[in-house]
Amino acid sequence: MPSSSEYQTVGTLEHAIAQVKCGDKEAYTFIIHRFQKQIYLYCYYLLGSKEEAEDAVQDIFIKGFQRIHLFEPQVSFSAWIYKIAYNHCLDILNRRSRLRKILFLLKRDQISDQELPYEDLIYQLLDKLSAEERHILLLRAVEEYSFDEISEIMDLKPSTIRKKYERLRKKLLRYQANPFTEEGGLHKHVIKPS
């Protein structure tokens, strides 16, 4: 049985997937190493927490291993594993949605008269987006997936993804143009340039 380092030199992703489907658990190590960083960053940007992202990545790769027999090569493996990540993160976001809204409101009230760090500003803008909008934004802008690939991951038509992305882009431009208005979402905060 080849080691994961041998897969990197003589094998391919397709070969590793075939080996895992045949029962070679060690071959899955190659798959994890190939996608771990990308999936971690995706989860981190969606969940906003290093610890939650690390836990999510482990769960996603476990689910991927358990479901690898369902993988069909008509879709790229990358899109397939991102679909698992998308659904897993969506579940996490849905579970914590109410608590997060309460905590956000409390935090906003506490810092309303203080300077906001740039990172907080980014998270505030992300909080203005729905979970679906965050997924589309991250897959398109950060991971640089095509609309067709995003449509595979999210089970939507490519034209629907294009329209949603265009609306999302316009929404973010409005926030950027009017950061101190109700529409921009930062009307209570004073932001000083660094």
Automatic annotation (TrEMBL):
CDD domains: Sigma70_r4 (cd06171). Residues 32-98 form the RNA polymerase sigma-70 region domain. Keywords: DNA-binding, Sigma factor, Transcription, Transcription regulation. GO terms for biological process: DNA-templated transcription initiation. Belongs to the sigma-70 factor family. ECF subfamily. It comes from Paenibacillus suaedae. GO terms for molecular function: DNA binding; sigma factor activity. Residues 121-172 form the RNA polymerase sigma factor 70 region 4 type domain. This is Sigma-70 family RNA polymerase sigma factor. Gene3D superfamilies: 1.10.1740.10, Winged helix-like DNA-binding domain superfamily/Winged helix DNA-binding domain.
